[in-house]
């Protein structure tokens, strides 16, 4: 399985600054498309008594796992970041692919794919980086502006034993007081950023938890986990509800009869094993009391994904988890049903099929935060986020109000925010099932495929694979087209002879590549790439470090070791190339050749191995040379800066 490796705070800062200067973008997100606030409009909310500049954010998942993901979420306008769920088992083998976003959305994703300590480092690095972004005013927005107000919300799972374990205890304790790591990170800033070393970054990285429970988790265990979190850490807790809480008959009727997704097979047993509505309400009331006794907040999130049988051929597992538009209707109705029992003021957050078209209605129901995931895995990725807030602004303008709370009160016909939210929910939610945009007949189209196979170089260069990657692992770089008739050599003993030629040709001005240390083989770029094979499989895959490179699985692996040196593994064979002033030193492990730019051999020698007859193709030489020269001459985007660092 592909391993994720984060990079240092300094690496991010340097890459961000150089990309801003050379391309006016950050991690590929163009500055002119980023969320830049909305003058005279206030989208702010309070989440657990803390201010957040907007009410939206990524749901715990692929958009909140690594530093660049969190930054990209922020740049799109997210201000409540539900960090990817952590749990005690941090060496899980997650099946690949794990995301199927061809239309409505399925996944077999789980918790964090990094070690607990590495996840902690990623989250704290992102926390510090956001504060540095504010202090340095790199985005051109004054540091005093509430625009930056951002909340990190922990997400932990999945059972009481795991949550009580020492590693999770240490992890949560560190998130509650990250002063040591924050100090170390600030101290590591290089001289050019030394004025920021004494920046006051809050040590409390997060003070709330959204709890994720496993399917079939007994009610007493859910209650035990919430109690443990509140009583041990005095943190605010939101418990994520499973959509099975709506009941098998209700979900079947909604999914199959009203929305038309008859092909999706439900598992009745999963509904029977999960928390039942009659148990849930008393449990939520008891936990509200526990929270109140400890001076913290308690609420519920609607919802987790819905477990269904796997009837597609994307994943290997027997079950898969449904997200997207059908889940939106089920989860909104479930939220209303629970709130009718718990009261209008019961704190609720939301995630299920949220996109720019329904986010405003979800906000009108007074849910905080409203989070998103499936939509951000579609074409455009994080750049889809600013439209959420653009639509919120339009609705505010239309209603002649300037802040979100006033909008909720006005549309909900009450000066009591909670009541107004409830009124809106009662008005808006029953109508959802009639809206055709949630129906199967409107959600059947698949991403376009054109029937061609990706190769190492050249493709239709549509660049779709760049923003759909939640980890910003795909990038493009200029590489001038070239046609070369390369010599094919044979070496026998001490003799080198030219036995023919091979054509090396690239036709496009730009090439696509992948940052293997940021890529977890989730498969999402393959889904949206019009060609077959998957960019993350077929394109050059760059590793940042020797350590991760040495673990490569033989798929198009590249490592730039110095500004004039590159290594590669192509077709399972290892190669090295060094650029000298006018010639190149190329080796395939047992023979080293000095070549001119056309591949003519000037010198050669055996390195090791049995000195017998060997044919030497120079296609790897030309591939490595073109890539290295392309990277060295490219504008300093984040990927290029990180790769050229040596
Ligand atoms: S490059 Fe593709 S496979 Fe890799 S993490 Fe990104 S979307 Fe997933
Ligand atoms: S790899 Fe696929 S998605 Fe990426 S630019 Fe090429 S054709 Fe487009």
Structure description:
- There is one protein chain.
- The protein is α/β, with parallel strands linked by helices.
- It has two domains: 32-442, TIM Barrel (Alpha-Beta Barrel); 474-643, no CATH class.
- It is built from 20 helices and 28 strands.
- Strands 17-20-21-22-23-24-25-26-27 form a nine-stranded mixed sheet.
- Strand 3 (45-47) and strand 4 form a beta hairpin.
- The longest helix is centred in the first third of the chain and has 21 residues, at 116-136.
- The radius of gyration is 27 Å and the shape is globular.
- The mean pLDDT is 95.
- The structure holds iron/sulfur cluster (2 copies).
- One iron/sulfur cluster is lined by residues 454, 459-465, 512, 529-531, 535.
Short description:
By secondary structure, the chain is α/β, with parallel strands linked by helices. The mean pLDDT is 95.
